[in-house]
TrEMBL record, chain A:
GO molecular function: ATP binding
Domain of life, source organism: Bacteria
SUPFAM superfamilies tied to this protein: P-loop containing nucleoside triphosphate hydrolases (SSF52540)
CDD domains noted in UniProt: ABC_Mj1267_LivG_branched
Name used for this protein in its record: ABC transporter ATP-binding protein
Key words, A-Z: ATP-binding, Nucleotide-binding, Transport
Keyword hit for ATP-binding: yes
InterPro entries: AAA+_ATPase, ABC_AA/LPS_Transport, ABC_transporter-like_ATP-bd, BCA_ABC_TP_C, P-loop_NTPase
Domain ABC transporter residues, every copy: 4-252
UniProtKB/TrEMBL annotation, chain B:
Major place of residence: membrane
Stored Pfam families: BPD_transp_2
Protein family membership: Belongs to the binding-protein-dependent transport system permease family. LivHM subfamily.
Transmembrane segments: 6-27, 60-81, 93-116, 136-161, 182-209, 229-253, 265-284
Topology term for the membrane: Multi-pass membrane protein
Keywords per UniProt: Amino-acid transport, Cell inner membrane, Cell membrane, Membrane, Transmembrane, Transmembrane helix, Transport
Protein localization: Cell membrane
InterPro entries, sorted: ABC_transp_permease (IPR001851), BCAA_transport_permease (IPR052157)
This protein's name: Branched-chain amino acid ABC transporter permease
UniProt keyword annotation of NAD present: no
């Protein structure tokens, strides 16, 4: 059974049909790309999948559970984590603390334990520190652990967002233009990182990207979105050679 | 009979709230900030008119004109010095706290300049008003003038915003600052104009308020200012007709509340209205819903 | 690992400096008082100073850590002051051991303020920014107004309530009026002291600093920094907003208890429990540095003592506060000012990061 099954998903904003009968089916541990011209509704799909917007039609099924209409927080707990097109870090907090916020739900202790510094607090905090540092190592950020997030260089900020999302131990990771603003060198590193994360954490990845080198380099299958509707779906090489897709990208 | 006269008094007070609320709602619509100091501009306007009439002995018309000019300049200066530098600040709390600071600055400057004593404001309207139902009911001149002035201001302002070039620029800026700039609209000038108009209206409101309720102190503007903000939220912040309707309703609620419940609780009642509106319909009666961009 | 330990010790060290500073200040003042080296005027200010320090620290939890502006903080202080004074006056003959009575009054004041915080927080925290500020202001004013119209008396039949006046309570001869509308509560036992105030400050600091450096504190700060991102990693935004707001209200309640048990007559006015007081506390928080707990303590102490010591300045006090507020905000938040600071004072940056 597919990990993510989306059926007939749709939403309108003030008469404009932003996404219409969107369907997608992603297998476990697949690396899947969502592409399309600017304004095609890609980020809106992400916002629908993560409960930022409530769909007015359709169903979202994650690993056999219907998560349609749930709130963002609950959807994350059900197993979807994401990054944002315009980076959203906890700017005034340290890099380490950003990841530790991601670890929040998986490593609980009570408020009283926290305020009184009881043994439970010390033990869980130590676990969190270790796990956070391990994640930072994966993304080559361990030397920045105590840096304030807003002081990180741009490329590292993008990576930190992925690390924070991975801290929630998701089944499905949504990456919204992870390579935006990166130079070819950084993009190459990022591709390796995404592959490595998938192997190590057995996570399924759905990503939005404009960088065709990245898309053709790591995505196994693609869905092309145009004017809020699915234009074409299938194996990466087939989709990229589809004449319809070429027209959509290059214009009439 | 008393109910009708309460109602008319309520409409009159509501007209003052509506005029003040216009200043809030226009500024909020364009600069997306709550100008906490707006209420205190009212007080400054009232003091200018008061000094003009009581000390300089000029006619009410000139005194009101002086108040309008002073407040307009004050509004422009406040925007330029205190708010504009914070327009792109990373925290929205920054400009709000600054506005609170400006409010305190105006109050305490007035305290030093004019003293803490309550001044008796001479009404700018000398007409005694009309008597109805064989003397059973008297509607004062101030009451009638206030309502009429409010209606005129509303009509002029709606026409201005809909029809004139600067008015259209104001609408464009409130929709999308960036796009307006690209279209060649001078955003800074438009925001300054909005503050100027709002502050000029505040002067008018101050004179009318003090003509009806003649005691003037440095704190006179604070409470009506906050209540007018409630009115603006009630009607739907950013909406000019909303400010009008919200102001009138709030004035009537307050006067009826004062008359039929405990007068000490009238303020609490006004605030309760705000809380209920925000919980039931946060966009107010005529406001638009804004979707957060993710 | 070494990185983390460094950070741990840095936080602990910073907290220890704050505690040490407060303790040292207390010991110095206390010994000066016992040696009679300090005027009655200043001695009388010690409890109010403690009240304002607790208020500033608790408001900083909402403004600096949660990132929301509350303009009704004095309202929670009002709730704590009146409920506890009410209790103490009722019980002044029943419980004669003053420390025990004060301790119970403290619990009651804290609990009632916390309940109010929770009840107000549930609807209010759905709102954002300006709206939240104005609604908290509204609630603060409503609380103050309600206290001013309420009359409560007690006789052998139990409690009597009225909103008309003390006469309409219809008390028997053995009865007494406890809360008398605008006249407030008179005859509260004066159980507060500088020492009690000092202990309460230490407890407040302990709770706030430890909360900030815990899992819950990180969740609260993540909401401040980016609500949408916080939700996306599974943070329950409503829960943590309420937590910060309620803890803050409870602390303001404690400050209220301290305040009311320092006065023989307790009345609710704009200056002690109204909007003006809330703004005053906000000035302390802004001046001490938003989010900087130690700064709040220092600002509250200095701004309470200074104007009283320099009596000549008292007319200009509020004016100066207003200017300080504006200048501080412009200097700290205006993008141009930040740019200018970074260009000319970048060497200070390291130092700034170490503070929390």
């Amino acid at each position: 059974m597919a990990l993510l099954e989306v059926k007939n998903l749709g939403i309108s904003f003030g008469g404009l049909r932003a996404v219409n009968s969107f369907e997608i089916s992603i297998e476990k541990e697949e690396l899947y790309g969502l592409i399309g011209p600017n304004g095609a509704g890609k980020t809106t799909v992400f916002n629908l999948l993560t409960g930022v917007y409530q769909p007015d039609a359709g169903k979202i099924i994650l690993d056999g559970t219907d998560i349609t209409g749930r709130k963002t927080t609950e959807i994350n707990r059900a197993g979807i984590a994401r990054t944002f097109q315009n980076i959203r870090l906890f700017k005034q907090m340290s890099v380490l603390d950003n990841v530790k916020v991601g670890l929040h739900n998986k490593h609980p202790y009570s408020t009283i334990e926290g305020i009184l510094r009881l043994p439970g607090y010390r033990k869980v905090e130590r676990e969190m520190d270790e796990q956070a540092m391990e994640l930072l190592k994966v993304f080559d950020l361990e030397k920045y652990a105590q840096t304030t997030a807003s002081n990180l260089p741009y490329g590292q900020q993008r990576r930190l967002e992925i690390a924070r999302a991975m801290a929630t131990e998701p089944k499905l990771l949504l990456l919204d233009e992870p390579a935006a603003g990166m130079n070819p060198n950084e993009t190459g590193e990022l591709m390796d990182m995404i592959r490595f994360v998938r192997e190590k954490f057995h996570v399924t990845v759905l990503l939005i990207e404009h960088d065709m080198k990245l898309v053709s380099g790591i995505c196994e299958r693609l869905t092309v979105l145009n004017f809020g509707e699915v234009l074409c779906q299938g194996a990466t090489s087939d989709v990229l050679n589809d004449p319809q897709v070429i027209t959509a990208y290059l214009g009439e | 009979m008393s109910f009708i006269s309460y109602l008319i008094n309520g409409l009159s007070l509501g007209s003052v709230y509506a005029i003040i609320a216009l200043g809030y709602t226009m500024v909020y619509g364009i600069a997306k900030m709550l100008n906490f100091a707006h209420g205190d501009v009212i007080m400054i306007g009232a003091y200018v008119a008061f000094i003009g009439m009581s000390q300089a002995g000029v006619s009410p018309v000139i005194a009101v004109a002086a108040a309008i000019i002073v407040c307009t300049l004050l509004g422009i200066v406040i925007e330029r010095v205190a708010y504009k530098p914070l327009r792109n600040a990373s925290s929205s709390l920054a400009v709000l706290i600054t506005a609170i600071g400006v409010s305190y600055l105006l109050q305490n400057t007035a305290l030093l300049v004019f003293g803490a004593n309550t001044q008796t404001f001479p009404s700018v309207v000398s007409w005694g008003g009309i008597t109805l139902a064989d003397g059973a009911m008297n509607i004062s001149g101030v009451t009638i003038v206030t309502i009429v002035v409010c209606l005129v201001i509303m009509a002029v302002l709606i026409t201005f915003v809909q029809k004139s070039k600067p008015g259209q620029a104001m609408r464009a800026v409130s929709e999308d600052k960036g796009a307006a700039q690209l279209m060649g609209i001078n955003v800074n000038a438009t925001i300054a104009l909005t503050f100027a108009i709002g502050s000029a209206l505040a002067a008018v409101a101050g004179v009318l308020l003090c003509s009806a309720y003649p005691s003037l102190t440095p704190y006179t503007g604070a409470m009506p200012g906050i209540k007018a903000f409630v009115a603006a939220v009630f009607g739907g912040i950013g909406s000019i007709p909303g400010a009008f309707i919200g102001g009138l309703l709030l004035g009537v609620i307050e006067i009826l509340g004062r008359a039929y419940t405990m007068s000490q609780l009238a303020d609490a009642l006004v605030f309760a209205v705000l809380i209920i509106v925000l919980l039931v319909k946060p966009t107010g009666l005529l406001g638009k819903k804004i979707q957060e961009k993710v | 690992m070494s990185e983390m330990q460094k950070k741990m010790s840095r936080n602990t060290k910073s907290n220890l400096i704050t505690y040490g500073m407060v303790a040292a200040a207390f010991l110095i003042m206390q010994s000066l008082i016992s040696m009679d080296r300090i005027s009655y005027l200043v001695e009388g200010l010690m409890v109010p100073v403690c009240v304002y320090v607790i208020m500033a620290v608790s408001l900083n939890l909402v403004v600096g850590v949660l990132g929301e502006l509350s303009l009704g903080h004095a309202g929670f202080m009002c709730v704590g002051a009146f409920t506890s004074a009410f209790f103490s006056k009722c019980m002044s003959d029943v419980i004669t051991v003053a420390p025990l009575r004060f301790f119970l009054a403290l619990l009651i004041g804290i609990a009632s303020a916390a309940v109010f915080g929770l009840l107000i927080g549930i609807p209010v925290l759905r709102l954002k920014g300006d709206y939240l500020a104005i609604v908290t202001l509204a609630f603060g004013e409503i609380i103050k107004n309600l206290v001013n119209v309420l009359f409560i008396g007690k006789d052998s039949d139990g409690f009597h309530f009225s909103t008309e006046g003390a006469m309409s309570l219809n008390l028997k001869d053995d009865g007494m009026v406890i809360l008398s509308g605008p006249q407030g509560i008179t005859g509260t036992p004066r159980d507060s002291s500088f020492f009690v105030g000092f202990i309460l400050i230490m407890v407040a600091l302990f709770i706030v600093t430890n909360l900030i450096n815990s899992r819950d504190g990180r969740a609260i700060m993540s909401i401040r920094d980016n609500r949408i991102a916080a939700e996306s990693v599974g943070i329950n935004v409503t829960k943590y907003k309420l937590m910060a707001f309620t803890i803050s209200a409870a602390m303001a309640g404690a400050a209220g208890v301290l305040y009311s048990h320092n006065l023989s007559t307790l009345i609710a006015t704009t200056n002690n429990f109204g909007y003006n007081q809330s703004i005053m506390i906000l000035v302390f928080v802004v001046l001490g540095g938003i989010g900087n707990i130690r700064g709040s303590v220092i600002a509250a102490v200095v701004l309470t003592l200074l104007p009283e010591m320099l009596r000549g300045l008292s007319n200009y006090r509020m004016l100066i506060y207003a200017i300080v507020l504006i200048v501080m905000m412009l200097f700290n938040w205006a993008p141009k000012a930040i740019e200018w600071r970074e260009r000319h004072f970048s060497f200070l940056k390291k130092k700034k990061e170490a503070v929390r």
